[in-house]
Amino acid sequence: TVTRLRPFASTIFAEMTALAVQHDAVNLGQGFPDTDGPAAMLEVARQAIADGVNQYPPGPGMPELRRAITADRAARYGLEHDPDSEVLVTVGATEAISAAILGLVEPGDEVLLTEPYYDSYAASVALAGATRRAVPLERSGSGFVLDVDALRAAVTGRTRMLVVNTPHNPTGTVYDEATLTAVAELACERDLLVLSDEVYEHLVFDGRRHIPLASLPGMAERTVTVSSAAKMFNVTGWKIGWALGPRELIDGVRAAKQFMSFVAGAPFQPAVAYALNHEQAWVAAQRDDLQRRRDLLSGALTDAGFGVLDSAGTYFVCADVTPIGVTDAVEFCRSLPQRIGVAAVPVSAFVDDPARWSHLARFAFCKRDDILTEGVRRLRTLR
Ligand code: PMP
Ligand code: GLN
């Protein structure tokens, strides 16, 4: 393995899911739903395979999917994109992220992250031969805030790109309009490209509104927005994601993507297009149900003695393990599958400063009620 990839030999999700399987544990670690997406969407994929939609689709993605993505974005947020030049279908958001960094950042450039960060950002920056800087989210009450002045202080003459993720994995933080406006001002002031990871855009709770960063003044021309069918329609295994942005930026993303995978899974594309066009009510119902399951898991973790933090969106809630007498969440998460048959993920797996985050574990609530209830029953035995 080349030196720059050695720190990325394994992923925390692979490690914790392997432990969960080995010990037949309730997997509240890796964030994937355990129920299927809309039945009619699954049927479109089945039919596409039967109808011979099994060869390379067009490089940028099938036209019907590109049109569905841009139509959805226009309907939801009033943001217009040319389906022919301003959207690119990718192999999940993961590839959109890697391709955006590889296609838009030079070796030696700096990429600014906020920490905790989704693990693929750091690995993609390393793949590009660039350097990352991570600015920590700050605790505020029982949640987190982004200190944009700290972000500003971390910008250097070499900073090329800022990566923003809202709704935020792993904390479930949803940035408010004031925060995003300050981020946008900083990006304009320092002429930064922005990679906005909005894969959980539809999973915001308690009546909150997701604000796409590209909708703020000065941002449309400098932002690549990434999203995915994975979280929208419960199909994390289909690996259909996309990048949206101005033509010049999408050209860079495509230049990298075409030599990473060339294209993304043909029969899934008409199915995702169908879902974007016809299953928005399903998405809303799924969000409401996830909000209920967030409450179920958060309440149960509180009862079990954890210091539960606020989750305003995503699949995840973070909890402080110190109130149950644990000092190191990494050791705690490693031993948990064997001890009580539950898997969780230590937040310090997503950071450059592990000491600061060593007290937090992330739990996923995107699981069936019976699974959550059983997980919680086992967690209560820790008391
Ligand atoms: N970004 C974030 C914040 C995620 O949580 C995930 C995965 N859950 C991804 C990107 C990758 O998405 P995909 O599965 O579509 O590759
Ligand atoms: N995004 C999911 C999570 O945060 C898992 C993705 C993965 O396994 N790479 O848990």
Automatic annotation (TrEMBL):
PANTHER family: FI04487P. Residues 24-351 form the Aminotransferase class I/classII large domain. Keywords: Aminotransferase, Pyridoxal phosphate, Transferase. Its cofactor is pyridoxal 5'-phosphate. InterPro entries: Aminotransferase_I/II_large (IPR004839), Kynurenine-oxoglutarate_AT (IPR051326), PyrdxlP-dep_Trfase (IPR015424), PyrdxlP-dep_Trfase_major (IPR015421), PyrdxlP-dep_Trfase_small (IPR015422). GO terms for molecular function: transaminase activity. Transmembrane segments: none annotated. This is Pyridoxal phosphate-dependent aminotransferase. It comes from the Bacteria. Gene3D superfamilies: Aspartate Aminotransferase, domain 1, Type I PLP-dependent aspartate aminotransferase-like (Major domain).
